[in-house]
């Protein structure tokens, strides 16, 4: 029996958006599904997920940004080109239909920074192959994206170690 894919959004100010998407990827890989992870606005490969994903045959991971892109005040033409390149890659991967799940990690942030237009993402989601699942992560998912999603989860920050001056921890935060 064939099932339709979903549109899943992980958003909010709390920790865990990428972590939830990666958990989904690992679960699907365990069942032999092919997954593509395209990281928008990330360019730091020394993360736990990057280290393990390179060893999992079912998961392909791509990055197009550089480390500084996370700070909105530093966004420039190079960053916009990186996001356009990532979106172009995402469209190609979706069209090829080799992957059952495509994770667009931090795409919501790219939308918030006006590096990509919501209309373009909506069109991409509406035209996706029926059996593919597309996962969008990042803070501040636009209303129009959430409206067409099948599943929207908002991560809410109740307490975070950063608030007490505790830095990011290897294996926990990256």
What about the largest sheet?
6 strands, parallel
**CATH architectural group:** 3-Layer(aba) Sandwich
> Can you identify the CATH class?
Alpha Beta
Order of helices and strands: EHEHEHEHHEHE
Helix-residue proportion: 25-40%
Low-pLDDT segments? none
Enumerate how many helices there are, as a single number: 6
Protein name: Cob(I)yrinic acid a,c-diamide adenosyltransferase
GO molecular function: ATP binding; corrinoid adenosyltransferase activity
Keywords: Transferase
InterPro entries: CblAdoTrfase_CobA, P-loop_NTPase
What does this structure look like?
The protein is an alpha/beta fold and 174 residues long. The protein has a single domain (7-156), classed as Rossmann fold. Helix content is 35%, strand content 18%. The chain has 6 helices and 6 strands; from the N terminus they run E-H-E-H-E-H-E-H-H-E-H-E. The protein has a 6-stranded parallel β-sheet, with helices on both faces. It is globular, with a radius of gyration of 16 Å. The N and C termini lie far apart (38 Å). The model has no long low-confidence stretch (mean pLDDT 89).
